[in-house]
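Hey, can you fold this one?
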Amino acid sequence: MTFILFTNLYNAEDEVSRLFELVETFTLQPKKWVIINDGSNDNTEQVIKEHIQQSGRTNVVIFNLPPKEKGNLKTIGHAYNQAFEQLQLKQENYEFMSIIDPDNRIHPQYYEKVKDIFDSDPTIGVISGYNPDAPKLKMPQGNGKCVRWSIIQNMTGEFWDPAPDTFLNIKAWAQGYKWMILENEYGVVTGPIAARNLTPAGARHAGWMWYYASGSWSGALARVIYRALKRRQALAYFKGFLDNALHDKMRCTDPDVIRFYKNGAKQRSDIIITDESI
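Sure. Predicted structure:
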């Protein structure tokens, strides 16, 4: 019993080869690899099947969703939720789950180190690597994120929101687990930099998520002022908040998510562990 790996793809036929090459380098292989073909309208599914056949892998499951015109970050969580429900994954047994993207670069021994940590420290619920070229992380990132499977199994109801990456951190936190970010040679995970403070698109998504997590208008304005002073895409953040507040009107009802955002950064930082020695 080891781990289950997840990859979400949309119109990624040109990236599949690189993805399979990446997974082949891992010294600890997943017991199951679920590739969510999230509504691709190109040849992504066919290319995946060709690589499965060429590699001789028997542990890959393709979960296809209906074709759509364009990708949407706000629906990735729903894609995961459907995969879990229709494949009945919560009934299966693993030590942990992980998420990777085709543009990630991960140390071959990364998953071995993750398994060793989970085995040796039962208080750790979420582990991720880090991108040395990105700003310092305040919580485990999505690329290469690993979550104890028991945390997933202990969830009830609909457990994927529009940001499944953050949602997994919150659910581990709500169950009393700590986070760990591996800041060593084994934890280097390169790929797209989380850019909620660096790019207009990232800031806009962060503003959208603030309203989603039951954030108030006054809280949004305070964050806009702070971002303006720090020159961190204040206008884009406010636009994202307005997109949701006035148009999408999506509010989270999960009590753990609401409590997490209302507790503020101080309480969250108390449960983050960074480790440079493992």
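The chain has a mean pLDDT of 88. Let me know if you want another pass with a different chain boundary.
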